[in-house]
Amino acid sequence: MVDSYKEPRLFEHSPNLVCICIDKIDLNITTGRIFTYYNSEPVIFNSVDQIFLILENFFDDIDFPQASTQTRGFAEGKTANLPLISTKSGKIMRWEELTGHQGTLATFLLHVKYRQNSTWQGNLKWVEKNKTRSFQSDLEFMELVNTAIAEK
User: CA-CA distance, 70 to 119, in Å (whole number)?
Assistant: First the structure.
């Protein structure tokens, strides 16, 4: 894991930059809010699984980063009830607004660079501690989030 956000606004112009606010963990269920450039209101998630599904749909919608494989699954209707991030109106939030949100327990800036081998690769910045780490898989991403929350 390498520190890489040397410059505070390094990924400012990346269309897929996401702010994840962790607000509560109750009985191992993580809840919080997701912010993107495309919505003025947060998208609420009620589990870690939902973070992945919501963001995977978001990345597919903006087609960035492009997935190297096609999404398949056993539960086709499972994503039907998920909150969606609408991108139809284009970018409506500025960098300062996106990065100004704060979670009750932790705040992360997520930049997914690639979606290869059916997983994500990118950088995760823990805002409160100003720590940035790279990750090579969805699992590694979640380990970084869980470690950060456990440290708090």
Answer: 11
In degrees and rounded to multiples of 5, residue 119 shows phi and psi of -150, 175
Residue 36 lies in a domain: yes
In a domain, 26, yes or no: yes
* 5 found inside a domain: no
- Catalogue the long-range contacts made by 1-7 (C-beta closer than 8 Å, 24 or more residues apart): 1/133, 1/134, 1/135, 1/144, 2/133, 2/134, 3/131, 3/132, 3/133, 4/123, 4/132, 4/134, 5/109, 5/123, 5/125, 5/132
| Residue pLDDT, tens place only, 119-146 | 899 999 999 999 999 999 999 999 999 8
Overall domain count for the chain: 1
**pTM for the complete prediction?**
0.84
